[in-house]
UniProtKB/TrEMBL annotation:
One of its GO terms (cellular component) is endomembrane system. It comes from Qipengyuania citrea LAMA 915. Residues 28-294, 339-430 form the Amidase domain. It comes from the Bacteria. This is Putative amidase.
Amino acid sequence: MGYPALTDKPGAIATATAIRNGEMSPYEAVEAAIARIERLDAHINAVVVTDFDRALERARALTDTGFAADQPLFGVPMTIKESFDVEGLPTCWGHQAYADNIAKADARVVSLLKGAGAVILGKTNVPPDLADWQSRNPVYGRTNNPHDAGRSPGGSSGGAAAAVASGMVACDFGTDIGGSVRVPAHFCGIWGHKSSWGLVPLQGHVHPQLAGRNAHDGALGIAGPLARNAADLRLLVELTRSVPLQASGKPLKDCRALLLLDHPSCPTDAAVRAPIEAAAAELERAGMAIDRASELVPDLATEHAEYMRMLNVAMARGMPGPGGKRASASDWFDMLDLQARSENAWARLFAVYDFVLAPPAPVLAVEHSEGRVFDGPVMINGTQQLGGSTLCWAGLATYPNLPSTVLPVGETGGLPCGMQVISRRWADLDCIAAAESIGTILHG
């Protein structure tokens, strides 16, 4: 099927501006988005829970009341990841056993987006337990990549990325603990932001086993937006942040970056390396200082091992995997100590460098498979690699709680390739601004 370029459809801010200027009403914007979903989603299967009747009712009410200046997303239609609670809609995290689990209240992020004037059209597909780089489950089936129906859009926010990339909606909100915002953005050729840990509230984003009970946000995991441009990412972060943020305003030409393309835990496929190297060369021609090695980089193999250990405990809430033993409280505090040392090491690096540039994943969009990507082999440069090792680039920012913005930088064989722009904790707006400047240099 055809795939619309990012510029072929207006973003969230552009839609809100058109509504404010009277070029369309909220009802017309929502009606058009529903029509796009009904036309395109038969081939993609991204928006797996629809709420069209209530969306049209809300859009009609917004149309009748008129534009509200204090609502930056006034009348903007969007979708949200299935794992967020939306009052009156099911939240099952891909499990048949929880298919009838109807949320009694909106997640905090959903409330903030609605308060900003957004109209939620429905929820987008995920893998079971949000634990795969595919978005396929027994309840809603498989989501396809808009660029190639035989490939994954990524996961676990894969339905979100596919909905945005295909032009159904301007934006979505996902979560990320193992690249679940960044990898779908990379696989689908859109923009995504992994926020600093703790920046965006995760209340109302809990496993359905805990439905109706408040739960700790947990380690490592974050909520972050997916969109078709940097300005929309910035607005969505500003609308949902729980602490104040400030941008440095430092021009990209005055910034110093470190490019990392090699990781000791997993090779980087040539299809990923080539577009990022070409992008880096273009940035250097534009005057950006880019180093390719630094003694300040922590031991990445050790960091990856500790990240995977912490990730497995966080995802399972301390329960053992096959052949494993339950993590004790002492084990967990030891992990937190190691994570704090990692945070300090990266803080020392960012005292010298403004940004780290890196792949979001060592591969482009993977072909569909029946098992999880992490449980089987992944082909990289013609050889098989352990699926779990591919999480190395996701952990680069996740383990030390850093922000990372992914932007599309090129393609190989018709499949898009993204790049991470990582910086110090709470420098979310700087990451987005740098990615925006990089995108302007690369794409005009």
